[in-house]
């Protein structure tokens, strides 16, 4: 397993709202890094003081990785392949775009991506290789 870990938004939303992953996170082997894409998604959904504090703590406690220009371009190519092969509507491809950026960012630094969003990330992984671990959604 990789020594670097990036959490997908799906895991962090559940954790911030319900603490359902607290035990797993405490026992996690690896160094946590943030994805700027994930942080942006989290900020977009902040509704309470607790949400705000949780996102601020993530920002302050873990360095943040950001997709490069090359990553953005590759994400578009991957989405074009997915769209051609699946026939997904533009809205679904737009929804997948941020997940592709998160996956490619994890791959670029050799990090393991931890997500609860099995279906979308397995689809993405069928087009580009990256390390992934699936955690159950809110319990």
Name of the CATH architecture:
3-Layer(aba) Sandwich
Order of helices and strands: EHHEHHEHHEHE
Given helix and strand content, the structural type is alpha/beta
Number of structurally distinct domains: 1
CATH class value: Alpha Beta
Q: State the total count of DSSP E strands.
A: 5
> What's the pLDDT, averaged over the residues?
95
Global outline = globular
Distance between the termini: 25 Å
Structure description:
It is a single chain. This protein has 139 residues and is an alpha/beta fold. The chain has a single domain, classed as 5'-nuclease (Rossmann fold). The protein is built from 7 helices and 5 strands; from the N terminus they run E-H-H-E-H-H-E-H-H-E-H-E. Helix 7 links the parallel strand 4 and strand 5. Helix 5 packs across helix 6 and helix 6 crosses helix 7. It starts with a strand and ends in a 5-residue tail after the last strand. 28% of the residues are buried.
Main features:
alpha/beta; 139 residues; five-stranded parallel beta sheet; Rossmann fold; single chain; globular
In short:
The chain has 139 residues and is of the alpha/beta class. It has helices spanning 9-18, 22-26, 36-44, 49-61, 69-86, 90-108, 118-125, and strands at residues 4-7, 31-35, 64-65, 112-115, 131-134. The chain has one domain (4-134): Rossmann fold, CATH 3.40.50.
């Amino acid at each position: 397993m990789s020594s670097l870990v990036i959490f997908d938004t799906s895991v962090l939303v559940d954790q911030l709202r319900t603490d359902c992953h607290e035990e797993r996170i405490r026992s996690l082997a690896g160094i946590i890094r943030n994805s700027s894409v994930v942080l942006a998604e989290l900020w977009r959904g902040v509704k309470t003081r607790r949400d705000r504090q949780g996102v601020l703590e993530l920002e302050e406690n873990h360095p943040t990785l950001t997709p490069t220009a090359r990553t953005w371009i590759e994400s578009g190519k991957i989405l074009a392949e997915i769209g051609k092969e699946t026939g997904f509507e533009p809205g679904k491809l737009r929804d997948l775009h941020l997940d592709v950026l998160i996956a490619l960012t994890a791959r670029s630094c050799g990090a393991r991506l931890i997500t609860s969003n099995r279906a979308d990330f397995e689809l993405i992984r069928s087009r580009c290789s990256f390390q992934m671990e699936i955690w159950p959604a809110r319990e």
